[in-house]
Structure formats: structure tokens, C-alpha cells
Amino acid sequence: MPADWDRLLETACRGEGLAAAYQPIVDTARGTVVGYEALARFPGYAEKNPEVWFAAARSHGRSAELEAATLRTALKARSALPANCFLTLNVSPELLTSESIRSVWREEGPLGGLIVELTEQTPIDSYVELEPDLNQLRAAGALIAVDDAGAGYAGLRHLLALRPALIKIDRDLVQDVDRDEAKRALIGMLGGFASRVDAWILAEGVERSEELEALVALGVPLVQGYYLARPAPPWAGIDLDVAHRMASARPALHKSVVRDVVEAAAAVASVPQAAEAFAADPALDAVVLLGEHLRPVAVLDAGASALGVVHPGLRVNLDTPLSQALARAMTRPKAQRFEPLLVTDNAGRFAGLARMERMILALAGTGDDAGGQETADREEEGE
What we know:
Blueprint: H1 5-12, E1 19-27, E2 32-41, H2 50-59, H3 63-75, E3 86-91, H4 99-108, E4 114-118, H5 131-139, E5 143-149, H6 156-162, E6 166-169, H7 171-174, H8 181-196, E7 200-203, H9 209-218, E8 222-223, H10 240-249, E9 266-268, H11 271-280, E10 287-290, E11 296-300, H12 302-307, E12 315-317, H13 322-329, E13 341-344, E14 350-354, H14 356-364, H15 370-381
Parallel strand pairs: 2-3, 3-4, 4-5, 5-6, 6-7, 7-8, 9-10, 12-13
Antiparallel strand pairs: 1-2, 1-8, 10-11, 13-14
Helix pairs in contact: 2-3, 3-4, 9-10, 13-14
């Protein structure tokens, strides 16, 4: 270990000798890259191991400064981030309230497309003190992720307290998941929890083709790991053979999901544009308001657009089971309970609307479209 850490940390905290690598995050449904995780690198120094650097920073009281420097380094490439991709940034939760980290967010301005990933450097017993900073991040457009679900502090109690938008499954659970039924059961439980709280799950540390196939078969929407792509300069893709393997591993749906009933809908970027759409087409009954990165915000009707009233809509993933989507919809306030649901893909982008009546009919087995035909086909095949 280098002896003169005071001098080295002083230099690194100014951003000198730092770099960032970006590891692709892949949508298993489409076999495409939908995001990147930024990882700190120290090419300008003899010591290359980031864990050694961050441990030294903690022991010398420079953690917040070093993390701020690595965040700024990672964010330099943000403006060139590919369209419809998000960027995840690792932050120690105990440092969120530090002025060094807060200044990074202020410098960036709007944080849409960023996911702040709370890493397991120091156990956190309570997130009460962090709530103001987390709320400010969310208000600026960032999403919150929990790292290493299933290990360390990221237990169920913390998932309930944080309500993250992204839950990363620990490598220990992913390793040999194809050979371990208990691991598959636990990942399935995490997936069920995520779907109920409108979150995604991401399996990290995928290193073998068999692990990838098991995760795809389980319906895990996002994956990351050396088998897919190693950390690299911006912006690497994945091998076509790996994408094809995901497509072949994805099972046919054995139960009705939101994808079966989704329908296209008009989408606009502002409430005045919605009013114009309704004026141009009297038969139009709903328009979707989009925010940054094509993420749906609300379903508007003609009255709401005329008054400028926006009630945040309920979002569900394309592969959310219909029964779960309906159960969540019925917990909404009475006035919004039967509004259509906003359907998103695994990158959070708008994919269409799911109307309550179509979901109910599909579950009842009386659908009049492809969902109904699928049910009939299954009955003929004896499923």
C-alpha cells in the first residue's frame, strides 16, 4: 500500500489521475443495452484497486471528497449518453448529506436519466436523516437504487424504507443460480416485491451463460456482468450472440401479463399540447403526458387538459402479471381508481396504456383480441 496517502488523496480529490469505466446494463426482453453503471478507475496511480482507494479515503477522513471527485469524473460523459439509456452512479449512503456530494448534484442541475445507487460501504440503521436528500434527488429527476439486495444492510426493512426504483440483486445470489433452486426462489420473491412497488430488479455479476439463461427464464428484466460486457470506455454494446441467447432463453408467457392488453395512445410533452390534441380529435378520450426520457407522467382527459390538472398516473411494466396490476390499481384513490394504467418497458419508457376493462376481461378469459386467442390456444394444448 502506498505510504504517502495524504499526498495521493489530495491529488485524487482534485480529480487528477481519475477515470471512469461504464458497464452496460441489458434488457433481457429485447437483448439491448438500456443503461450503464459508472465505475471509478485510478489509471494515474500505481495503486489501481478502487476498494483500496476508498478504504484509504475513509481512514483519512476524505471519503466525501474522493466520492465527489469520482462522481464528477463519471458525469463528464453524461451529455453523450446514448438516447433512452440511463446512467447509474455509486454513492455511499452516509455521504449523501455531505456538502461535497450535494455540490455535485447542484452542478448537474436536472438529474433525469440518472440513478443514484446506494452502495454497501457502511451499514445504515435508519434512513430518516437521509430522507431530505433522497427527496431532493427524486425531485430533480433522479431515481434511487439499492445495491446488493440479499446481502449486508439491503434487507427487506431497508427496501421498505427506501422504496427504490431499482433493486440490484447481489452477485452471491446470481452465482450458480442455474444450479440452486433456493436462489431461484429468492430471486423470484424479490421480483414479486419489485413489481408490487413499481420497481425493477437488476441481476449483477452474471459471468456464465447458464446463469444468464436461468435469470431470463425467471423473468428478471435487467442483467449486468462480465458475460454480457466488461466495464469499458463509453459506450460499449454487447455481442449479438449473447443477445440471441437471451431471446432463445426467454420462455413463452404462461400467464396473462400487461403486455397482452397494452394499446397505443397519443402522447404529448405538455398539458397545452394535450388540449390541442383533444381539440383536433373530438373522438380522443385520453392523452398521455410524457416527462424526460419518454417516461410517462399522467393520463389526461379533455377536462384535465383544459384545466391544467395533472394527477400522477400508476405505472406498470409490460411484464407485470395482470392480477398484480389490478390489485395495485384498486389501491388508488376512488376518483382515479379506474383510470388506465401507464405501461413502461424495462428502461421506464412509455409503451402504451392498459385499460382496466381489458385487464379484467383478459383475466376472466373473455378477451376479444390476441390475449383471448392465447387463452384458447393454451386450452387446446392442455396447459
